[in-house]
Amino acid sequence: MSKALIFRGRQDGWSVRVHPQLMAVCLGLLLLLCLSVLTSLSLGSHPTRLPDVVRVLLGADSLEGIRLILLEIRLPRVLVAVLAGGALGVAGLILQGLVRNPLASPDVIGITSGASTAAVFTLWLTGSAGTTSLLVPAAIAGAFGVTVLLVALTWKGGVSPTRLVLIGIGLAAGLSAITTLLLVISPDATAMTAYIWLTGSLYASRWGDVIGLAPIFITGLFLACAVARHLDLQALGDDLALAAGSNLNANRLVQLLLAVLLAGSAVAYTGALSFIGLLAPHMARRLVRTGHTGLTLMSALLGGLILVWADLAGRFLFMPRDLPAGLFVAGVGAPFFVFLLYRLRRQG
Amino acid sequence: MLNPFAFLSGKRLALPVFLLILIGAVSASEAPENTVTVKHALGKARISASPTRVVSLYQGATDTAVALGIEPVGAVESWTEKPFYRYIRPALTDVRVLGLETQPDLESIAWLDPDLIVAARNRHQAIYPLLRQIAPTVVIDDVYDFKTLLTLMAKATGKEQVGQCLLRHWQARTRDFRSRIQRKLGDAWPQEVAILSFRADHARIYYGGFARTVLDELGFSAPSAHRKDDWGIKLTSQESIPAMDAEAIFLFMQEDPAVKRTFREWTDHPLWQNLESVGSGEVYPVNPVLWNMGAGILAANLMLDEVYQHYGLANTLPTADLAC
Amino acid sequence: MLNPRTTKALCLLLSLGLVGTTLVASLILGQIPVSFHDLYASLFAYSPGDLRHLVIWSERVPRTLIALVVGAGLAVSGVLMQSLTRNPLASPGILGINAGALFFVVVGASLFSLTAPSQLIWLAFIGAGVAASLVYFLGHEPGRGISPVRIVLAGVALTAMFVSFAQGLLILNQERFESLLFWIAGSVSGRSLDAVSPLLPVIGVGLFLSLLLSRQLNLLGLDDELTQGLGMNVGQIRLLTGLLVILLAGTSVAIAGLIGFVGLIVPHIARGVVGPDHRWLVPASALIGGALLMGSDTLARLLIPPREVPIGVVTALMGTPLFLHLARRSGSRL
Q1: What residues of chain A lie within 8 A of the CB of C155, using their CB?
Q2: Looking at the domain C76-326, which fold is it?
Q3: Is 70 exceeded by the pLDDT of residue C143?
Q4: What radius of gyration do chain A's Cα atoms show?
């Protein structure tokens, strides 16, 4: 464990521990994120030079041609990637701490499935290719609805983590069947649009999406740092946590709700992105061994990074087609995860 | 802090701009000359007169643009026979392909700097605000309503003469068809027809859509079981074959070994042999592009040619491009 | 009071009765009304001109037969998987076998245009085998056998990987997408008997071998030291079981596409009825699985005629409440 710097308030009223290593990594990730954002802004069907990008961002009046593309098409999209990726990363971290299982993520326990079924249902009902105004509330409602069902079914005097995962898996499977049914009876174009939504895509992200997602992400991030202490305690096991005075059931509910808030809203805007909630926390843990506060910040940054690059790959590698970012997240993330498992296997 | 123009654009600008256009439309006498205001499914668009750079975001619009004598600067690619359907490919020599109809490449559209964008509500409603910022956009409500599309696009592009001519020509052709088929079939007219399609692992009946609309206009009727609000249904079991029955069947499918195999399996089945239309030999294979995908006035005319052919009627009126 | 053995035998008989009932129902019910008399006549006095006889033999019999065999295959593969991994959640869907089959089918269909049902079946079988081997390899701790948690983890990771690759190919290749949708959703209809007849006996063989292995399967639940003390070679039993799993699950998925829940739920139901002894569990699961799938198929074509609900949806809708109930009861004990 590296040395920590400790700042104390007057008369020890408060204290904050800061690990220099963690700070360095976080700053490094932040820098990497900014560079990735700028790279993503410069690439597209019409490459733009980096100096031009910077000039437009800083408010230049000229360069009309690329201003529209940069400010209305690329910038909102990249920002949504940062926010949604970060939200999913943090949600995954919270769930993994809640359930004490590295397998947990919003997709496994049914949150994403709830949002998906609600979204596909809305698409089937309206037959239109994704009117955001209806899809977003529907998806969020679906995510929360499933969570309510999840808690109701899991509650037996308390919330047991293993039961939560099991019931989550069951709900996810059941909802996935309903989604399949809807896909099968929909006309082709609706089915294809729904399928792309189910994979997770940032196509046609707008400023309205950024404005909707930003406050939720920022609030969620703050709250996540606040519950980080409880997650640290819970990681020691139920008995120790109870002995230390933790109100397990209440804490678990709060953590679950926070995870649903973050994951549900992210998915509502981008479609059912999976794997970021599974990957980002794992990568964070491998970078620095630290408590949940640090892990939360790193998961947020890593999640954003993953999605920014996945989105860039999707819109740049197969032009003029725009492939869903979700494909690349899973396509790269899943083999990586398999590789991780293989490594773990070696260590026994 | 970011560029203040970014703060003002997007959603915040949409409402004031919309109001402006509304006011502009109301006080039409004060509108600058050389602009046309067109009311469409999602609002109004003010377009400069005789736009030359037109972007088409769905198949029907590409078809109609070509019919009006305009080569679009950008168009979305077709579902089959990529990048553009063979029947209109000759007219599209210098057109930028914009990707899929459901996800057109927004950057390319912006870069083309168009004067007019034509889109469809059930495909592009989500990106309509973005499209409006790029160029005046006209949005069609129903992708299969090729006549409204023709009228709208004719007005938007300042080619109303051509548009009206094409419509009159179409009406003349339908009248001609009706009289000829009435003479040929006599009491058997109107005839009940079903529209079927075969895919690799299922078959379809179309209750609505482009072909159904055209056939209805020509006077054909449909089995009562096919008069539903849905687009149609997908059938996986051959037990459902009796649901396909009608006095005549038009069917289409892709050139694909898997599809052909399914078609053979279904048509070899005894239940198929029992169908009324099979018994009377009135099963007509037709071109899927014209009947299901083109969705514009040119496709409609070519589809009508096929119907004439199958019923053995003389097709004497001049073709659309010669008439107008 | 009846002794346990007799109770179990009675339960098996009841299951057999259930199979018989669902079999007849599957042959009789459907869009074209067929009476008992027609059924009897088509079996013993077949006349090719009679439409109803034709429907029975060309439509109903293949479906019923496939549903019966695939249902039994999936159920028994579920039993084997759960015993092998000591994880009550194990099933072809969760351990990635379905996903592997899906991926190979999509690759074959999109990249090599292999779309004939007979080709799809082989692709699915190979895919299932590859996935099962991978998941076993990843879930196996050297020296300690299969870790229940790790194998489920491996299954989830592999499922995500295969599904995402398959989805990518489908999105790039939209025409293929909508022609594979029904296979992906699971179906026992539209498969001609000639295409599947080589594979149905394979499942039969698998079921038979599982029955033979039942006594040894009971040992899989015990600790390794105990079994070694009893002189059994656990490694060999595990290997055989693994191979049987690939055989049963792979072939089932190959024939009928992705049908979930049967491999997950039926072992639990069967366990509730006849207990954990594999000598009773395997046959009971096979029977209940067959009955369940035949019943689901019948339901699938009666709900929204002339359309059919994909059979995977029916099994899921039936299986989910059951699964949730089970998870609620036993969750804390895992």
Answers
A1: none
A2: ABC transporter involved in vitamin B12 uptake, BtuC (1.10.3470)
A3: no
A4: 21
